[in-house]
């Protein structure tokens, strides 16, 4: 069971959390720290591919780097909990464009719709 990440974590700027949550045989919070802060998912992946630290990214985004051997899985038995995406509209009536966007996200990411 991981108890602390001793490698440089690639964190978002002004990261509010210095722990990462993992789901394994149980859910745990692990303290992380890092010397690098990045402000985009793409930069986080590029930094990880160059060996600047470990990144917590979407599996779909990491697939090309994993396939090419530029990235390696860390703690595969302890995945991150699912990420929740929310679509916010200015009214309870979803415009056609927002509904179409939500449908595309569900198809591309395999997301499950949740009413809210």
Would you give an account of this structure?
With 116 residues, this protein is of the alpha+beta class. It folds into two domains: 10-67, no CATH class; 84-116, no CATH class. Helix content is 28%, strand content 12%. It contains three helices and four strands. The chain has helices at 41-49, 59-67, 96-109, and strands spanning 10-11, 19-23, 27-31, 36-37. Strands 1-4 form a two-stranded parallel ribbon. A two-stranded antiparallel ribbon has the order 2-3. A hairpin with a 3-residue loop joins strand 2 (19-23) and strand 3. The termini are far apart. The model has no long low-confidence stretch (mean pLDDT 78).
Order of helices and strands: EEEEHHH
Distance between the termini: 35 Å
Question: Looking at the structure, what is the overall shape?
Answer: globular
Rg from Cα: 17 Å
How many helices? The count is 3
- How many discrete structural domains? 2
Determine the strand fraction and express it as a percent band. 5-15%
Structural class: alpha+beta
Which strand order spans the largest sheet, edge to edge or round the barrel? Answer: 1-4
- Sequence stretches where pLDDT stays below 50 over 5 or more residues: none
- Largest sheet data: 2 strands, parallel
Helix content: 25-40%
Instruction: Give the overall pLDDT as a whole number.
Output: 78
Give the strand tally. 4
């Amino acid at each position: 069971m991981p108890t602390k990440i001793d490698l440089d974590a690639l964190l978002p700027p002004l990261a509010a959390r210095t722990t990462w949550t993992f789901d394994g045989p149980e859910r745990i919070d692990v303290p992380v720290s890092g010397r690098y802060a990045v402000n985009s998912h793409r930069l986080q992946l590029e930094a990880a591919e160059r060996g600047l630290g470990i990144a917590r990214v979407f599996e779909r985004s990491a697939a090309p780097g994993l396939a090419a051997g530029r990235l390696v899985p860390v703690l595969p038995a302890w995945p991150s909990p699912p990420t929740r995406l929310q679509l916010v509209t200015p009214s309870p009536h979803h415009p056609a464009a927002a509904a179409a966007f939500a449908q595309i996200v569900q198809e591309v990411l395999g997301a499950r719709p949740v009413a809210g």
